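In the design runs reported in the main text, the only information available to the sequence generator was the tokenized backbone. The following block is the verbatim input for one such run; it is reproduced so that readers can re-run the procedure and compare outputs position by position.
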């Protein structure tokens, strides 16, 4: 919950300290050896066939009938001593029907997600920090703890292959609570812009990763959300096209080693 009382902007030195601690966390994450399994629950809905129609010289946007799917996977991630990451999924349920499909593909329709646990590396590692500018947006209270909301934007002229956006960072230990990714940096954003141009609308995507579980100093994802919306201008009518909500729980940790020498 956001603190309703405006807080004084922290000094630049405080932001520098937070970023240094976040870089140290990324050092640990980047050399970690991991092997864990969790339950991955995905709820997805979308409206296929959005389009335009004309009546009496008026343009009308129509949306296809909503289609809902839900999936439950056993999700496994392995990261070896060379830093290579392998994801495996076993599909356990599809649309309420129990199944058992080893080495199953991710069945989401329009967008896909991968290696969510490694997300902070592309925005807070030492290498990434050299390519970004950072600014404190505001201060919040989350479950009684002080959190800085920090925006990261690529430096002028820097071309990045990683995601970037806004990070919720716990002041006490620089624990990464949540990242809201800038939609321009996600995969398939070109498809979003093509849809927006076709409909004559402005895209408005919300993409977030949340990290609520911790083991040996590494924070693991608890939720991933992507909402695809289009608007008329900045504050006009909204057209919701799709949403993916992913919840991670029931973690089983086999290996989480952070003091690894390569």
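Verbatim output:
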């Amino acid at each position: 919950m956001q603190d309703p009382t405006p807080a004084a902007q922290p000094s630049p030195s405080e932001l520098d300290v937070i970023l240094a601690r976040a870089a140290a966390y990324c050092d640990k994450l980047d050399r970690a050896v991991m092997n864990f399994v969790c339950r991955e629950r995905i709820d997805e809905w979308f409206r296929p066939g959005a389009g335009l129609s004309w009546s009496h010289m008026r343009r009308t946007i129509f949306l296809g009938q909503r289609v809902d799917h839900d999936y439950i996977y056993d999700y496994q991630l392995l990261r070896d001593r060379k830093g290579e990451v392998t994801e495996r999924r076993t599909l356990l349920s599809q649309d309420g029907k129990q199944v058992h499909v080893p080495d199953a593909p991710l069945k989401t329709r329009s967008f896909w997600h991968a290696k969510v646990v490694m997300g902070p590396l592309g925005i807070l590692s030492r290498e990434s920090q050299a390519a970004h500018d950072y600014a404190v947006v505001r201060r919040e209270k989350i479950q009684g703890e002080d959190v800085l909301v920090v925006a990261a934007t690529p430096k002028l002229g820097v071309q990045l292959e990683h995601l970037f956006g806004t990070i919720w960072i716990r002041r006490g230990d620089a624990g990464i609570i949540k990242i809201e990714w800038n939609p321009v940096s996600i995969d398939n954003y070109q498809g979003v812009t093509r849809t927006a141009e076709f409909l004559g609308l402005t895209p408005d995507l919300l993409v977030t990763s949340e990290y609520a579980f911790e083991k040996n100093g590494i924070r693991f994802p608890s939720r991933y959300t992507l909402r695809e919306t289009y608007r008329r201008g900045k504050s006009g009518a909204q057209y919701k096209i799709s949403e993916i909500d992913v919840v991670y729980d029931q973690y089983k940790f086999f290996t989480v080693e952070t003091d690894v020498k390569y």
